[in-house]
Fold this protein.
Amino acid sequence: MGIPSYLPGWDPHLLGNIRGDSMDEREKSTVGFLLILPALTILAVLYIYPLVRSIAVSFTTDEGVLTFANYKKVFDLYLKDILYTLFITAITVGITFVISIIISSYLRFKEWKFLDYMYRLPLFIPFLIVGHAMRIFLAPHGTLNSLLTRLLGMKELPGLSGSWVGLVITFVWVMTPFSTLIILGAFRALDDSYIEAAINLGSSKWKVIKDIMIPLTRPSIMVALVLTFVRTISSLTIPLMVGPNKPNMITVDMMFRVNYFRDWGVANALGVISYLIVLGLAVYYLKFMMAERGGLKA
Amino acid sequence: MVVLETRNLKKYYGKVHALDDVSIDVEEGELLAVIGPSGSGKTTFLRSIAGFVKLDAGSIKLHGRDITNLPPEKRNVAMFFQNYALWPHMNVFDNVAYGLKLRKLPKDEIEERVHKILKLLDIEDLVNRKPNQLSGGQQQRVALARAIVVEPELLLLDEPLSNLDAKIRMRIRFEIKALQKRLNLATIYVTHDQEEALSIADKIAIMHLGKVLQVGKPEEVYRNPANFFVADFIGTNSVIIVHGKDGKVQIGNRTFNLPAGSKYARIVVRSDEVTISSEEPKEEKGLTISGKIMGRLYMGSKYRYEIEIEESNDPLFVNSQNIYDVGSEVYVIIPDGSFFVYEV
Ligand SMILES: Nc1ncnc2c1ncn2[C@@H]1O[C@H](COP(=O)(O)OP(=O)(O)O)[C@@H](O)[C@H]1O
Ligand SMILES: [Mg+2]
């Protein structure tokens, strides 16, 4: 009772439980190592090797000489894009969080089958189609504008398909289902009595969400936010199709660098910077999880 | 003065009548125990008063004010949850203070009231602990503190002791009673343990299949049960079925008339209130049945005997402090008021 649910992380203790008692320490660690070997191999081949290569390439010239030129170029040409990427990602995470909480809370309190199915719909639509649909929807003479002009008699707006607002709208549309899926799952796993105890003492629904439901599901919410952040910052199709031409997201810059200039050095330097941003987030997340576990255990 | 008036409460879950025309009152400072077997509608009754169950019919008044359609957060009744429902992310202080913070009281008043109530319940030193650092009994007290610190008009307790072990249960039972009297707080106490109910209630309501079968003082429902179910449910009993002949049921020294259409009678015997004797008693009062001891169990303070009797296929189970040998012929003497006869 009382420990909120969250997506299970890899837990080294699991390994401890399946080991026999008769083995000595050395044998135990060998068996342990063998058990995680497949996972380690995949990690090394698919993740660590490309990462190391990427870092190596970003610090060398075409001739293989050590250089910082790629990073200098990145800061000269793309500093604005890096900040823009962070800005778009942060706004997307923020809005996605708010909408996910609203949908999850609604569905936790009330049954509405239609919404329960509808919010998941975007999960099944490929990014490419979403991008195209959003372009039409947000274009200067697109669906959104014609609706606004016809229904509200408003003057036609410039159209959002080439602006950061349109990009954020599209990102939120794509990211919300997944994040809602995680948060709603956690909300539904909460025992009714936690919620009813608060309402019984005079709490409104909004206060219950703020004081009880969100704090009790923080680990799951963190997972939802981190995944939204990573999926947004690493998305290429959507900013390419919906976003403005300038400024651009880092992923788009990387693609241009490779496609038009065959400039692997700068592309990799941009990649390394993305890694660093995500790494920063990962460290924060791990710290949070440790505090959370420690807090619950102590 | 009446604190709570419930009138003709009805609640259906499909075909199940969770509440079937329930009308019960609670007076100022009174402890009402609601008892009944599992599934009889006790929790539904409490939850409908707290506002978590939407009634199909009926009305609820609290201090004369109609609260039937009031949302749960606006009713000033405090509910104690069977699993305590302490919020694991808050320490004891924050758990108890939550209701006061919602009422926007000044900070020092909140602190004062929380400490007062923790002191009253003798858990002041736990104030900074998280719920998972507390024993079951301590959690139980914190949950109680959280419910009463807001000074509710009515306290609802849903099987408050069911998660504690038997020894602690006995002690806390009386603590709750003393606390309730001290605060003079109208309380509904739900339990499936009839002994617990008898020992602490001012008034008992017995529920079965969504219906209230009887409401009365503990002594009343124990001495004058309204029907077979109540007689059997309350107390430690032995039930025997005796078949009738020519509209009459004959058992031991007594004969009872059966109404037309009845085939047999069920006799409820209070197992602890009998005397066993190896000689036939002279007195004609009460009910005396002769039988043969088939088994004996040692229960510490008494023996439990299984006695075979001629009039019924069911053995009679009775308790006595005296020791008799298995196989011996004895007389079981049951005084008036310690057995009840119901025709079927
Ligand atoms: N939410 C519900 N949905 C369907 N049936 C319910 C629900 N709550 C209670 N019931 C039914 O109503 C009856 C009374 O339940 P309850 O009030 O919990 O009994 P008790 O607390 O006396 O054990 C039971 O038959 C139970 O199955
Ligand atoms: Mg119940």
